[in-house]
Design a protein that fits this description.
This protein is mostly helical. It is built from eight helices and no strands. α1 packs parallel to α7 (125-139), α5 packs antiparallel against α6 (105-116) and α6 (105-116) crosses α7 (125-139). The chain is globular and about 50 Å long. The two termini are 20 Å apart.
């Protein structure tokens, strides 16, 4: 499924530029992806769309200001299920992105929601990085160059 998500990310610059799921499914089929992977990816993308547009998005610059004032004493506590599913490498990476002020609390919750929807655990860090990219993509934000470099450090994956 992650190969399908990478293909979608690389071929459609933003979530709003992506065709409707039915048409996207036909394009993915024509590109040679397996039907099961396509169906899983389309279902996952549909849920991503719902999660990213369900609540109001806080601009990253606004989130940076609020992160240091309003939430200075708050902390996200991960459930046992989240800890087991994500593992220490993924949780550490999420913490790294938050501490670098490139992942707002709103975006973090979308990332966690979509990561928890992936079967099997612990999750691979490379898969989590794709999820983070897809969250940026779905809300129409382009990660800055350093973030993009961190998310796309795998030589087999190329981002735009």
């Amino acid at each position: 499924m992650f190969e399908v998500l990478v293909f979608v990310y690389e071929n459609y610059w933003r979530g709003d530029a992506c065709p409707e799921l039915e048409q996207l499914g036909r394009k993915l089929n024509a590109a040679g992806f397996e039907l099961e992977d396509i169906q899983q990816a389309l279902s996952w993308l549909d849920e991503l769309n719902l999660a990213s547009h369900k609540t109001e998005l806080i601009d990253i610059s606004q989130a940076k200001r609020e992160h240091h004032t309003e939430s200075a004493h708050s902390m996200r506590v991960y459930s046992v299920a989240e800890q087991d599913h994500l593992g220490s490498a993924c949780l550490g990476f999420i913490n790294f992105l938050e501490s670098a002020d490139v992942l707002s609390p709103h975006m973090r919750e979308i990332v966690l929601d979509r990561a928890m929807a992936i079967p099997g655990h612990p999750m691979h860090l490379d898969d989590l990085k794709i999820i983070v990219l897809m969250v940026y993509w779905s809300i129409g934000l382009e990660p800055d160059a350093l973030v993009l470099d961190e998310l796309c450090d795998d030589a087999d994956r190329v981002a735009h």
